[in-house]
Amino acid sequence: MATLLSQPQRRPPLLRQAIKIRRRRVRDLQDPLAPKAQEIEPPSHHLSPEERALLYEEALYTVLHRLGQPEPNHVREASELLRYLQEAFHMEPEEHRQMLQQVQKLEKPIFCLKATVKQAKGILGKDVSGFSDPYCLLGIEQGVGPQGGSPGSRHRQKAVVRHTIPEEQTHRTQVITQTLNPVWEETFILEFEDINTSSFHLDMWDMDAVESVRQKLGELTDLHGLRRIFKEARKDKGQDDFLGNVVLRLQVSGVRKQGFGWGSGEGLWVHTKGSLGPASCRPSAPNRVRLMLPVGVGPPAHLARQDLRCREDQWYRLEPCTETYPDRGQCHLQLQLIHKRRAPKASRSQPSYTVHLHLLQQLVSHEVTRHQAGSTSWDGSLSPQAATILFLHATQKDLSDFHQSMAQWLAYSRLYQSLEFPSSCLLHPITSIEYQWIQGRLKGEQLEELATSFSNLLAYGLSLIRKFRSVFPLSVSDSPARLQSLLRVLVQMCKMKAFGELCPDSPPLPHLVTEMLRTGTVEWFHLKQQHHQPMVQGMLEAGKALLSLVQDIIGDLHQCRHTWSKIFQNTLKIDLFSMAFLELQWLVAKRVQDHTAAVVGSPVSPEMGESLFQLYVSLKELCQLGPGPAERDGVLALDGFHRWFQPAIPSWLQKTYSVALARVQRAVQMDELVPLGELTKHSTSAVDLSTCFAQISHTARQLDWPDPEEAFMITVKFVEDTCRLALVYCSLIKARARELSVGQKDQGQAANMLCVVVNDMEQLRLVIGKLPTQLAWEALEQRVGAVLEQGQLQNTLHAQLQGALAGLGHEIRTGVRTLAEQLEAGIARHIQKLVGIKESVLPEDAILPLMKFLEVKLCYMNTNLVQENFSSLLTLLWTHTLAVLMEVAASQRSCPLASSRLKIALQNLEICFYAEGCGLPPAALHTTTFQALQRDLELQAASSRELIQKYFCSRIQQQAETASEELGAVTVKASYRASEQKLRVELLSASSLLPLDSNGSSDPFVQLTLEPRHEFPELAPRETQKHKKDLHPLFDETFEFLVPAEPCQKDGACLLLTVLDHDTLGADDLEGEAFLPLRSVPGLTGAEEPGEVPQTRLPLTYPALNGDPILQLLESRKGDREAQVFVRLRRQRAKQASHHAPRPGR
């Protein structure tokens, strides 16, 4: 008997893989101020004993009357499924055995094949037009043996269904006219008794109506169509054309998996299912195939599993009856093995989907419970046994995909409210219901049941959202994913057409969630407040409890901002953080204001002040979490909260200073004045002091008082206290050094401690210098610019800082001066010894004691002092050393040997104090004193002849720098002939001489000498002729000096031209002197003889009137006759020059 169904069947949905979940149940939140949210009592999923027995009978019946080949991932063995059911229903072995016997005695169901003829494609065109009018005949052939008869017992037939299946069991589709790709979408129910002896047959025919030849010629399109006309003329009128067939055995038991036939080399005949082409068919057996298999070869893969599955949905090839047209197209069939008239009481008394719902609930509950027993959480995946049983039950009961999704939704939504499993399991049934939703497909009680499930799950989900802080704690790693999954389920559920039609009065989900979050936030606050309620009543305990409450709120807001708010924003566009902040800040403000009003009315104790300060800092952090003034609407309850703490500010500042002072005193008292390490040269107290000052700066930053004027006064107080602590530390550390030095015999140890003290002060100065940055003076200056007078901050804060730095600098300099004084005496002593060493000792050896002394002492100081203080010490020692050298050098002017030693000492001291760039820089070394001392020692260490040579070098330099001719000038031509070793001098003239006689004129002549005399001892001076009364004499005389080139090329070698005024009665008067450097004479430096010699005009000069230092030094060497002769001559010239001053205007 066949029933035509219009709704196509689809495969059941698979449960999606979900994340691991653990839900913690929390107790009800008690809130005396807020109304209690309604708790949702989840519907029970437990069955009564009677219901459980009926459901167990139904499940056993399903397994025992299983049809078809199992799905790939399903369980094959019935015994395994029965064991699983016994475990899932908690049946005792005896009870299970009795139930199994009862079910085996029940009447078998009517087995049916539900066949849906979907469509066909690529069929033959039998009509003249090239198309066909296809229809299908289908039915079940029963009573066919396992082998289907011998290969030659049946001949290939066209009308298999018409000839072999009774007419009342034959079913026919509609005729689709003029097409090669017909679409039917028709469903038939085909009953059969024994699946082992039943075959499904489908024949496809082309409907031929009686038409005239004229009508057929009108449809003619090509010669092929004309041939069809002649072919049809030979047929009976109205006879349909065969298009192909599909024959499928419902269960093939004739193919042997082992034994004879496989691998024996013999042929094996098997029935086809339409999957084998006609090439494998024998002419005498249209539906059988002979497989010729060689020895050792098993059956083909497509014959290893021949049974139909419970559900089949595929394309089948249309088999031909002849080889004329082997390719006849394909037919798309959906096949399902179902039951009718099931014997269990549940199937007879309850709707199929209700029974399936209860079975699904029972198996899922067992899956969850089994995982919990193994200390794991169910991930939403059914076991193969459960999936197999549910699939068989839904298939045998012919449940539609929609009703299966309905059952899934109802079962999972109920179980989710009482068991632990991922909410993502609800997404798939939601999607399936939404895709297939047609309200008319459900009965009234089913609609009501679905609406109730929506309402219950929504209420339960909202209750979890209200308590999300405890239900989804961040201590569990998957809590954010669980909450997000729940929100996704609620969002998808509320978007469903079914939800909109069944729950039309439900408010928008964002509104409901927002109200739940607001209510839950208030409840959480009161729960935390109750949790922190102190056991002992008192203001101090109340303050600590309030501080803990505020810190918990800050932690919760951080979690909301970084985790929870993102989830609610992404799913529902709800700003959880802003909502929670507004609610919590109002609740906090009321309690903090009441607490501070009760505390500051009386004197604040140190303990209470500390509690208030911590509370103030926490409130400041809480306010910083909220939106800025430009981003919020209205005024917050915490705005201006700092005014509540204003009376406590003096106690905060006093405690900060007291604590810091105590730490400084304790640090100094415990300090042994030993460097912390090789690189860290200060002691422990300096480190403690830095930490102490850093804590003061941290306290100032924590306070960060909002009122600008009051903030300035607070900063002034912090700076004042810090500077006072610095000076107190200096006094304490010096006293500690004196205390440790009492009875100390080792002077080196005392010096060590003094170095540490100086280093500690230097470290303190560095710390104090960072106050403007640590206390943010620039930001403060910008804030107070409108309330303070111009320069008030500079005059106050900077003046305090500079005063403290100046005091520290003075203390540091005093300490360094003390260290320097210990070394200065040793330096002076070694320098004095330097000049008293025997003359036989080399200067380099004579200075060794001094250099060793400095090396030891400076290395010691460099090790024990920081770089800044060591540089200061070097500066003091360098200044003192130069002063000592100046003093000793002045006393040894007449001793070249001593001066030479002092000169070498100065050079080595310069190298020592420079220390390859690690000591004093060149600018600090090359002071004015150093340069003067260097010049003096350079002269004092020179011999008399070297001094004479230096004298002429200086006169040559003076000659080169003189451009004025107010004393007159001489013109000469000089050249040197190397081949003859002759210096040729042509004295041409003199001009503009001074009139030295009383008659207003002069009697000039020129004296020529080669200087210095010790370089040219054999050459006597030469003189020119005397010219009477001539201020511009023209001499035109030539002189030749036989002299080698070598002495002429030395420094200071020159031709001295002395112009004199001849006096008959007295000594000649000096007109002036001119110096011609010999190394500039042409021909002296080159090998070639000079050509045309140029004239040289030399202005006349006078010796220095105030005495030359070189002459003074030579004059001090009384025992040196050569020096005395030279000085006498130069003094005479200077005396002559002093008698004649140039006339004004010349």
From TrEMBL:
<feature type="domain" description="C2">
    <location>
        <begin position="92"/>
        <end position="239"/>
    </location>
</feature>
<feature type="domain" description="C2">
    <location>
        <begin position="966"/>
        <end position="1091"/>
    </location>
</feature>
<dbReference type="Pfam" id="PF00168">
    <property type="entry name" value="C2"/>
</dbReference>
<dbReference type="InterPro" id="IPR035892">
    <property type="entry name" value="C2_domain_sf"/>
</dbReference>
<dbReference type="GO" id="GO:0070382">
    <property type="term" value="C:exocytic vesicle"/>
</dbReference>
<keyword id="KW-0268">Exocytosis</keyword>
<comment type="similarity">
    <text>Belongs to the unc-13 family.</text>
</comment>
<dbReference type="InterPro" id="IPR010439">
    <property type="entry name" value="MUN_dom"/>
</dbReference>
<dbReference type="InterPro" id="IPR000008">
    <property type="entry name" value="C2_dom"/>
</dbReference>
<dbReference type="InterPro" id="IPR052095">
    <property type="entry name" value="UNC-13_domain"/>
</dbReference>
<dbReference type="InterPro" id="IPR014772">
    <property type="entry name" value="Munc13_dom-2"/>
</dbReference>
<dbReference type="GO" id="GO:0005770">
    <property type="term" value="C:late endosome"/>
</dbReference>
<keyword id="KW-0963">Cytoplasm</keyword>
<dbReference type="Pfam" id="PF06292">
    <property type="entry name" value="MUN"/>
</dbReference>
<dbReference type="GO" id="GO:0055037">
    <property type="term" value="C:recycling endosome"/>
</dbReference>
<dbReference type="InterPro" id="IPR014770">
    <property type="entry name" value="Munc13_1"/>
</dbReference>
<feature type="domain" description="MHD1">
    <location>
        <begin position="613"/>
        <end position="733"/>
    </location>
</feature>
<feature type="domain" description="MHD2">
    <location>
        <begin position="844"/>
        <end position="951"/>
    </location>
</feature>
<protein>
    <submittedName>
        <fullName>Protein unc-13 homolog D isoform X1</fullName>
    </submittedName>
</protein>
<keyword id="KW-0967">Endosome</keyword>
<dbReference type="GO" id="GO:0006887">
    <property type="term" value="P:exocytosis"/>
</dbReference>
